């Protein structure tokens, strides 16, 4: 132990309070910036900052199924197959995740996108459950059928195993306003399906043939996934939708219920408690601004057009 | 001879410099941890409350299973900020906030590297966290920590005499 010394109190440095506050503020600023970056989510995902702690991934499939994310007027995005497949990929890579629940509330959408998601689900080597909420029809049912187990509410709308390619045609409307469709094509069927002229009989037959082919693929997938014969599935594939309770009797869903039943199924398979982590793209502050901006622009345009139309007295816009 | 009281050389206060004991060191460390809680940990509180939202048993389960990589990253950031705090304060002021309040000082030729080395006890990795057991014992017996012996520095307090 050193001997105590006798001395004077050390002189206080000038401005030490200011420097101390600056250092504290600097540390606070750095930690706030890092927390903000992680919380925003999108950037956090690019940095692969994984905060998930659960053992079962819940991947929502909400809205119309499309190939890429597309914004509606109100900035809402449907079920993008790119994003869903990315989420499935993350669940596949994450060793913590033992199973996946797909929360489906979609009327269907693009056949290609539905098939892409369905394939990705089948390639996932972990137990999967489709939990159908209000609607899980058409392409959404295609995805649901790819899972190991389907749970639907007794009143869920499901089925609708069919393909649609309908569109609006208004050549007479154009004629009424003295607008002419000038056809310039190289290739007989290049403008087949264009709404400015009538669809010809041979073109309709051509389109119908394509739709029938897609329909066959759809039926094949469902029959394979649900262990039904092709003919059994074809009988059900009239495009008719079924309530959950009807779908269960027909073999299109496995169980009636909700999230609890889906979780219970996984617990039975995994023989462990389930802790769910939602795999969903977080809406960043930039997405919110984009949505607000889109809504503002829409209503501005509506207001202006409504005002001008009323002045001219020709067009009235009602929503 | 005229004598102005302003020219009189009055005796100044005298202080006894002695090594700081365990209690004051512990108290100053607690105050520093409290300061760090506000400046380095609080910005992440929302993330922690989301991640550790379950019961105590569920949260302990998370620790047992292994922390998510993101939480580990956040902990690493907090530890680096704590290291910066202790290093910069001891280097520039020879005192942290806690030491200012307990009127203790880091004495010795405080270079940047010495300050940094004195601060490494905050890192919770092997073998550093062994110091959490060794240092209090060493301080109790020798009034100086092991790291202080290695850096040739001391933590002292000034006790006013009479």
Would you spell out the secondary-structure blueprint of this structure?
The complex is a heterodimer of chains A (319) and B (162).
Chain A: E1 5-7, H1 16-40, H2 42-46, E2 56-62, E3 65-66, E4 79-80, H3 81-93, E5 99-106, H4 111-123, E6 128-137, H5 139-145, E7 149-152, E8 157-159, H6 171-176, H7 201-225, H8 230-236, E9 241-243, H9 244-250, E10 255-256, H10 259-270, E11 276-278, H11 285-312
Helix pairs in contact in A: 3-4, 4-5, 7-8
Chain B: E1 15-19, H1 22-41, H2 45-51, H3 56-65, H4 69-93, H5 97-101, E2 104-107, H6 112-118, H7 131-142, H8 146-151, E3 154-160
Antiparallel strand pairs in B: 1-3, 2-3
Helix pairs in contact in B: 4-6
Protein model, in words:
The complex is a heterodimer of chains A (319) and B (162). Helix content of chain A is 46%, strand content 15%. Chain A has 11 helices and 11 strands. In chain A, the strands form 2 sheets. In chain A, strands 2, 5, 6, 7, 8, 9, 10 and 11 form an 8-stranded mixed sheet that branches. Chain A has a two-stranded parallel sheet with strand order 3-4. In chain A, helix 7 packs across helix 8. Chain A is flat. About 3% of the residues of chain A have low confidence. The longest helix of chain B is centred in the middle third of the chain and has 25 residues. In chain B, helix 4 packs across helix 6. In chain B, 57% of the residues lie in helices and 10% in strands. Chain B has 162 residues and is mainly alpha-helical. A 3-stranded antiparallel sheet of chain B has the order 1-3-2. The chains are: A alpha/beta (319), B mainly alpha (162).
What does this entry show, briefly?
The complex is a heterodimer of chains A (319) and B (162). Chain A is an alpha/beta fold and 319 residues long. Chain A contains 11 helices and 11 strands.
Keywords:
heterodimer; A: 319 residues; alpha/beta; 11 helices; 15% strand; B: mainly alpha
């Amino acid at each position: 132990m050193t001997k105590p010394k006798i001395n004077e109190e050390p002189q206080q440095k000038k401005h030490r309070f200011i420097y101390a506050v600056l250092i504290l503020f600097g540390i606070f600023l750095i930690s706030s910036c890092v927390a903000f970056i992680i919380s925003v989510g999108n950037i956090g995902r690019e940095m692969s900052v994984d905060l998930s702690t659960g053992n079962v991934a819940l991947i929502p499939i909400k809205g119309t199924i499309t190939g890429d994310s597309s914004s509606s007027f109100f900035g809402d995005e449907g079920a993008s197959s790119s994003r869903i497949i990315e989420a499935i990929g993350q669940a596949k890579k994450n060793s913590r995740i033992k199973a996946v629940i797909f929360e489906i509330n979609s009327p269907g959408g693009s056949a290609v996108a539905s098939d892409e998601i369905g394939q990705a689900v089948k390639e996932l080597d972990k137990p999967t459950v489709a939990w159908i909420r209000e609607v899980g029809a058409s392409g959404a049912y295609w995805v649901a059928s790819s899972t190991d187990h389907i749970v639907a509410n007794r009143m869920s709308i499901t089925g609708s195993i069919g393909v649609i390619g309908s569109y609006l045609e208004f050549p007479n409307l154009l004629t009424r306003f003295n607008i002419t469709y000038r056809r310039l094509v190289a290739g007989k069927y290049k403008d087949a399906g264009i709404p400015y002229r009538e669809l010809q009989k041979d073109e309709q037959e051509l389109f119908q043939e394509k739709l029938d082919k897609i329909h066959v693929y759809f039926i094949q997938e469902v029959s394979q996934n649900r262990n039904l014969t092709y003919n059994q599935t074809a009988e059900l594939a009239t495009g008719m939708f079924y309530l959950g309770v009807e779908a269960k009797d027909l073999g299109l869903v496995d169980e009636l219920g909700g999230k609890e039943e889906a979780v219970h199924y996984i617990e039975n398979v995994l023989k462990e408690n389930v802790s769910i982590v939602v795999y969903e793209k977080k809406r960043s502050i930039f997405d919110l601004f984009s949505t607000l901006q889109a809504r503002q622009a829409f209503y501005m345009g509506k207001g202006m057009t409504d005002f001008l139309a009323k002045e001219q007295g020709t067009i009235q816009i009602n929503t | 001879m005229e004598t102005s009281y302003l020219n009189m050389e009055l005796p100044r206060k005298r202080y006894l410099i002695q090594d700081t004991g365990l209690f004051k060191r512990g108290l100053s460390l607690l105050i520093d941890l409290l300061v760090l809680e506000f400046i380095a940990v609080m910005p992440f509180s929302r993330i922690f409350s989301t991640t550790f939202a379950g019961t105590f048993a569920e949260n302990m389960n998370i620790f047992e299973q292994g922390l998510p990589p993101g939480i580990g990253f956040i902990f690493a950031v907090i530890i680096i900020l704590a290291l910066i705090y202790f290093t910069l304060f001891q280097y520039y002021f020879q005192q942290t906030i806690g030491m200012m309040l307990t009127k203790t000082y880091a004495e010795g030729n405080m270079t940047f590297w010495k300050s940094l080395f004195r601060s490494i006890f905050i890192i919770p990795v092997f073998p550093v966290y062994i110091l959490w057991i060794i240092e209090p014992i060493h301080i109790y017996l020798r009034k100086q920590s092991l790291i202080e012996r290695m850096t040739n520095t001391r933590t002292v307090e000034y006790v006013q005499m009479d």
